[in-house]
Amino acid sequence: MFANKRLGKELIKIKDHTPPGITIAKSDSLEEWQMDIKVLDDNPLYKDQTYRLKFTFNNKYPIEPPEVQFIELPASSDTPRPIPMHPHIYSNGIICLDLLSSSGWSPVQTCESVCMSIQSMLTANSRNERPPGDSEFVAYNRRRIRDIPFVYEDDNV
Amino acid sequence: MDLQEFLATEPTHDRDDLVDLRALDFVSSYDSHLMCPICHCPFVEPVRLQCDHVFCHKCLQSAITTFRSADSDEFPCPSCRTPTTRVSTSVPRLLVNMCDEIQVRCPLQAEGCAELLPRCHVQSHVDKYCGYRLVPCPDDSCEKKIRKRDLQSDERCLHGYFLCSRCEEDVMEKDFEEHDKELCSSLETTCVDCGTTLPQRELKKHVDACPDVVSPCAASKYGCQVKIRRADSGTHEQTCPLISLGPYFEAQNTRLNSLELTMRHLQQRNEIFEDGMSNIRNTLLESARAGRSNRRRSVTEPDRTQSQNEDDPTETPNVFSSNATTYLLSLHESLREEVSQMSHALTDLDARASMTIMNECLRIKEDMAHTNAAVNSVRMQVQWLMNPRLHNGARTGVIRTNTASTAEARSQLTSTSAPGPSSAAGPSLGPLRPRRPSDTGREGTKL
Questions:
Q1: Which of A49, B70, B104, B183 is the most buried (most CB within 10 A)?
Q2: Which CATH number does the domain housing residue B82 bear?
């Protein structure tokens, strides 16, 4: 109930206005939204690409963080959406960002502010690589995102 | 209060029977500063943290229970993450008032209440004044609810059905008024234009199609003044010249619009170009100024001035060959600059010279003071030494031997205490002639 009211207000605001490079792609329900984000500067890793983020809200939002990950749409579709290359983003779209963990989350964050954080995380990156152990993680991980014990050792990115 | 106490307090607005202030429909948008960052509604019972961030009572409680680390009394502020141990329930009255004054719609809007009122009055409105609130039927045997404004003073149950005398439908008594005025199928009305009598609820449909309705000609926007019945409009359309011209007018209008649009585009482009031009002009002027500053530097190096002055005129015409006036102006400007540069240098030199003179003077003055002091001390010592001699000379033979011995002792005393040349000069001054009487008088006051 609490979550729906807050999400409703956020949705009105997002539909009215979004920051540059961020657009709402899908918001059929108040449980799952999809956002398209673009990196605005000339970073060669992400130039001319659009990425799709999937937000899954539970009924404790905004006290609990939403689940956020990149999703891939095939290159042959009308709107190709790859998974961006980043040392903190696994090739299945899972993002290692302390903001999205239960400990780093703050109820003051909004869908919009999370998008902007991820956008700036991409902007600041210059390494064309996946996190260490990416292939194993992608092959074996069956846990839900919130249960993955990420270690946030790198404060630089 | 600290966190434990705060968690124990109950938000007063959180009871079930009260209006949920977060679900209200706001008439206009409100200032985002009045919005709780957690629930995104205007603050409900705001409380304040040590870092001055404000949240709703209820929102903060749920945030604290989730984010407080189990073993400590600290809680990071959701906005700035400052560790906090205390919560203050006193927030500026201004904030509370501003939140309370936001205009909202009555929560019973769906039932038909169109009331707009400040948020702080919603509760009392719903409790006491809103006629659309459903209340239990005053008849104890009836379990249905009824809108408050339909309550009769005699507290009858209005849920009984009875037959409408005109349309023969069953109508509940509480709905009868509405049925009687609007919904009853037997109600009839007449069309103003054609005089046909028809059921009231079909009137709207009829007016759209009625052949007798007088409407303006389709070309009215191009100036046709004729108003005509719908049935006759066909004949008018065949004769009206403006209607046949209509498509042409349309085409002209769209052309005009597109031309205006291109005009505006061109104007914008023109402005951009003009801006660019003035930019270019500015950079040219700046480069001229840079050339001059080169020359300014040459003032400090007089041997290179000559060559610089020869360079400049050859450089500048290249830049300004297209614009002779600007070139002359800039030349004039640079000359003037040079003159002022010279005068600057002059005053500088002047100041420097007077400064050195002053310095020298000071030093000489100091030296003179030193010399004065030395002369003075020498004089004093001479007087010391002369003193006993003078006395001796003035006295008789009996006392002479006595005084001589004391004078000896004294002179030795001074010779040890007096530094430098005076110690050497002291004893050698012994056999001097008696001094002038004027000196003896002065000696008394000095010593």
A1: B104
A2: 3.30.40.10
